[in-house]
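Troubleshooting log. The previous structure file for this entry was overwritten by mistake, so regenerating from the original sequence record. Sequence copied from the archived sheet and checked twice against the printout by T.R.
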Amino acid sequence: MIPTSRSRLSYKDRRSHQKQRFRFVGVVLLVLVFYLLFSTVVAEPWMLDTDSMKPGYQAGSRVLVHPYWFRNSKGDLRRPPRRGDLITLMPPYIKDEAWYFKIVNPVLRLFTFQKVNLGHGIREDWENDRMFKRVIAVPGDTIRLEGSIAYVKGAGEDFFISEFEMSGIGYDLQISELPDGWTPDMPLSGTMEAVLLGDGEYFVLGDNRSSSNDSRYWGPVSAEYLRGRVFFSYWPLRSFGKPH
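Regenerated output below.
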């Protein structure tokens, strides 16, 4: 029998391979840290998981969000949203996620293409921890609804004007016809008495007025629950560019 010889790496080669592995791990960690910092301060990718913003944005749409990072000592935003802006927010009935979720979730969303988010399993199906809505009225405004369209009166103004005129932004709404006999006091009737917004309060609505969980049900949302402004849409391709 001819003896076989096993080639063995020299000490120098083993050290070289070990250094390569350490460098690879270091590069991966550096990329993850950079991504966490970038998504926390500059641009955070998110995917809409409901149809509440149809017809402009359907479930599965993907956007980039600029986080509301800078606040004063009272928690008010230094650059508050304007009427017509698309924003992300945490509903007032949802408890803030644990600190470790805030670290792990951005990485999970990166590697799963925004499909996995820890914490959903401990909530009901309808309890989304992040919502996408449109700012309709800002602090000091008075807002009412008629035919599912919002009419806004600014602070010190005498007349209500439509949400489109007030924001200066053109966008489409999805409004379904109501059944016969549907009264104004019933849900989704599209009618709401005038509401005056206080300091730091914002009134947000979904563009799909017939299927959206928004300020019509849980009232104005305070600035502390606002998370960021949608500044770019990248999927589907037909909506590629600045949001509207």
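The first strand starts at residue 44 and ends at 47. Archived copy saved in two places this time.
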